Amino acid sequence: MTDKPTRGNPPVSGRFRKGQSGNLKGRPKSKAATPTTSAIEVILDKRLTVNRDGKPREISVEEALQQHTLQQALEGNRSAQREVLKWIAKRDRYLMAENQRKVPQAVTVRYSHCPDNANEALLLLRVAAPNPKYQDKDNAMEHLLLEPWAVQAALSRRRGTKRLSEKDISEIRSNTGDPDSLPWPKGIEE
């Protein structure tokens, strides 16, 4: 054979012998796979010191965020409430999958014909609040004002084309906690 290179082939003298690699050191070792942790994972793994009941306690950032979200949910933040409900559903799915869910015990419910039960439910669900005009504790439960978001939700669910009368609008305003902040849905004239 001639030592003359052909197009695309190196000269015969520059070629490796059969069975011999051109890389005497072998294939380079790949670098150790670096752990792929995101910046958020690094932050969530950090520890914070918080004071609870006057005692310092160390918690993770993730736990602090969860406690903050739970607190916001209890204060009425709707998106925080949805997040907490997702946590509960996730926990329930896990317990069902693990077959660890306890059989709920029977609960005896006693109904009272006292109309204050509905008021207490409205207060608990933060649909209504006591009227500040009635500070007397005996009358406070009788005078509740609806929250504007609840009134707006009720108004937006109205069916039919009948417009509200002036009497209806004044009644809604007098029974709403902050009637000036009430966003009236389209089609309801003030």
Description:
The protein is 37% helix and 9% strand. It has 190 residues and is of the alpha+beta class. Among the domains are: 39-97, no CATH class; 121-181, no CATH class. The strands form two sheets. It has a two-stranded antiparallel sheet with strand order 1-2. The chain has a two-stranded antiparallel sheet with strand order 3-4. It starts with 38 loop residues before the first helix and ends in a 16-residue tail after the last helix. The relative contact order is 0.05.
What are the defining features of this structure?
190 residues; alpha+beta; two-stranded antiparallel sheet; two-stranded antiparallel ribbon; 37% helix
Record field, number of beta strands: 4
Oligomer status: single chain
Stretches where pLDDT is under 50 for at least 5 consecutive residues are none
How would you write the strand order of the largest sheet? 1-2
Spell out the blueprint of helices and strands.
Blueprint: H1 39-44, E1 47-52, E2 55-60, H2 61-74, H3 78-97, H4 116-124, E3 128-130, H5 137-140, E4 144-146, H6 148-156, H7 166-174
Antiparallel strand pairs: 1-2, 3-4
